[in-house]
Amino acid sequence: MLPRLIQGGMGVGVSGWQLAREVALLGQLGVVSGTALDTILIRRLGSGDPGGHMRRALAAFPDPQVSSRVLDRYLRVDPVGVADSLGAIDADADAGAGADASSPRYPLLPLPRARLTPDREWLLILANFVEVYLAKESHRGVVGINFLHKIQFPILPSLYGAMLAGVDVVLMGAGIPGDIPAVLDRLARHEPASITLDVLGAGDQRYDTSFDPGRLWEIEGPREVPAVHRPKFLAIVSSATLARALVKKAPGGIDGFVVEAPIAGGHNAPPRGVQQLSRDGEPIYGVRDDADLGQMADLGLPFWLAGGYASREKFRAALATGAHGIQVGTVFAFCEESGLDPTLRHRFLAGVLRGETSVFTDPAASPTSFPFKVAALPGTLSEAAVYEERPRLCDLGYLRRAYRKPDGTVDYRCPAEPVDEYVRKGGKAEETVGRKCLCNGLVANIGLGQRRADGYEEPPLLTAGNDLACLKPFISAGRLSYHARDVVESLVSHA
């Protein structure tokens, strides 16, 4: 049975390997975020790989030829002056609309798409391997990886890379991940796997994205393929109805559920029924949006409750409902081991202490159209002036949507890209209003934001759950820091 406490898989790099490793060492389920790990890897290497952690993990990869190619291409052992040395932009024709590619701070990868090149597949495999390997290094604790089902293009090689590193658990939400258990089965045997793409305007036409690990190994030449095991799979849901549907779709393939309430940070499931907004412009959730925990228990699978459970009283209450445990995000996101930029983290905690910080459930911010929690902090994209000042561009592209063109082929668009580009691709201008570039904003949260040729630096975009009170027991006027151990001990030892 898995631990009772799951550390949430927050943001892009916030739930990094350091945090997941520490939580796993403490006997709980440490989780790394699987989002944008390829970009994170090359930017860590481009920053000189402080501490040598990326190189150490890459040296453990089963194929040294693959890892050496990535090191040769992206590692900058002397990052001083790197802004001038990285002049080439590695991107396909539709990357970086509106950007000056002459002198980026970090190189850019080709935008994710349904058909990935072998080089891009290997980079995704490596990046996920590195993060999980470091999280599991030198201990026998339990480590998971969290993915968003909405980000479909990189998901298959990303899963395979995590499995090569021995990931114990895969967690997935932001969609209906009923296809993932079968994918894990096939990848554990190094067999081809595919998932159906969510293509706008597809009608009756089916599109998919596929990945064949055996073909990749053959490209590199004859070699022994490493053994992998099939990790457990936890689906992140907001209702018992969805959980029941997933069990029917993947009988025996789902090992449990994380039941997430609307007050949790990051993306939230939309309210059921026609969306209504509060006076402040937030989606209104009602009793229909509360998961029926009795029905969850009737499914006969363990489940963890998430969203507002970061206290010993709430932990006990969750166990009393029949839950196996809880998932906690926000309080881990702001601990010292998290990947958040330390200055950003301490500024936010100081605001919480002064009562000056709030969290807004923004129905428009995310290009996915899922409500997204935006934490208020001066100088970030939570401020209207900062948002208006940012040039619209799409040069990371993880949240792009596939859409069907009149000739039946697939193209890609994002409502956070330049408005004229989005409209040219068949989108509606009104769909772009208020959309924020989560990709760049979330990467900036961990100190790896792009500095563009004209000097513009991507601003961060913080997210947190509504329950900011959970942070106050760990901070004071003279101490704006705490550790993952403090969180675990405050919860588990009293549950």
Describe it for me?
This protein is an alpha/beta fold. The protein has one domain (5-341, 468-492): TIM Barrel. The chain contains 18 helices and 15 strands. The chain has helices at 17-25, 37-46, 53-59, 64-74, 82-85, 118-136, 155-164, 180-188, 213-219, 240-249, 293-298, 312-320, 330-333, 342-354, 384-389, 419-424, 438-445, 484-492, and strands at residues 5-7, 30-33, 143-148, 169-173, 193-196, 199-200, 208-211, 232-237, 256-260, 303-306, 325-328, 359-362, 372-375, 401-404, 410-413. It has an eight-stranded parallel sheet. Strands 6-14-15 form a three-stranded mixed sheet, with no helix packed on it. α6 (118-136) packs across α7. The longest helix is centred in the first third of the chain and has 19 residues, at 118-136. It is globular, with a radius of gyration of 21 Å.
Discrete helix count: 18
- What is the spatial order of strands in the main beta sheet? 1-11-10-9-8-4-3-2
Number of domains: 1
Work out the number of β strands.
Answer: 15
**Basic shape:** globular
Rg (CA only): 21 Å
Give the CATH topology: TIM Barrel
Mean pLDDT: 90
